[in-house]
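As a warm-up, study this chain.
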Amino acid sequence: MDMINIVRICAILMVFLVFSGLMMSRKMPAILALPVMALLMPLIAGVPLFSEDKSTFTIANNVLTQGSLRLGATIMALIFGAWFGEVLKKIGVTEALVRKAAELSGDKPLTMAIVFFIIGTVIFSSSDGLGMVILVGSIVIPILLTAGLSPLTSCIVLLACHALGSLFSVSGWALMHDLYGIPVTEVARYAVLFAIPAAVIYLAMVIWMVKREVVVRKAWSMPVADSLNRRRQVRALALITPLVPVMIIFWFHMEVVPAICLSLVICLLLALPKRPVHVLVSSLVEGIQNVAGAIGLMVGIGILLNAVTAPQVTLVLKPLITSIVPGSALTYILFFSLLSPLALYRGPLNSYGLGSGLGVLMLGGGLSPLATMLALRSALLVQGLSDPTNTHNVWASDFAKVDVNDILRKTLPWGMIAVLISMLMAGYVAF
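Now compare it with the structure written out below.
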């Protein structure tokens, strides 16, 4: 390796560390940091800005233009998924599920927490955006507080079911397909399999936290009873609709967008809303508004992916990546289990941040697509539950008046245990 390449590696690593620090300290959001990194890395590696030769890899054409379109399928899955989630909200399925959970659990705090955990997982499997978290959380958290749980535990119940439900997010499956080329049906199969240890650990965490609390019933200032009494009658069959897209993809091997379109039709047939056209149109508009930030993030991730896969960047970084890529099942398990906290703060193991680029580089370093996908999906068990930069963590902590870092401290050990078990499974499957 010559001196020029060593200098370039050091400069690229410096860019990586500086922007990681900016994102961790919340001084620059990921939606802006990722594209800026994507411009600086190829510049350092010697990629030209422009070229009259159309076959030349350039920042303007290949990184910016083609990169912004790279995750187009994922963005469409995100939009259609948000549309479906908004339809469920408008026709009353989401509120009906929460209400049914409250009725089934009675006034026992532990039973209530477990039932809400299960129902919440079902709800968030269909839509895991901030709007759905606010809708569910603004009902669930006050009910749990009234039952005697602490604000911190109430938040953790909500965030645990959200983290588990998001493993079944069809837009997340589409992202894994775009990044690693694994068919969506295969991604779905592994998502179901690897959700089992997460479900067991998260549920054990909820039970442990509820049982060790001294239950003291308390009042809550928000009019929860009124929101539950203003109920829209929803047919019992319509309550299964949040699971319909997952079942269609899993059983009929259908792609994400047509699966959601079919799910919308089934949802309307089961629920029979009074103004179906209005529900569809307004839900589409509001759904796009809800995921606008996520769409911007996906554009940034696509630009970063094309930047790190530029021939010049790959040539510079390949010796470094090859030296750190795990070569055996044991090192693979230990590497990703111990470093799983690096998925926090949009870090290098976060598929919705720097991890998207690192994962593609690891493919070039010799790690198989399946092993890479399973490792980064496992890291999400920490990120989805504990990350203080998650918008749903920030909202829940603010709503219940707790410190978002207290959530991190309480949940991180549990998340790392879930990652370890998942990585043991991944090591067996991928090696």
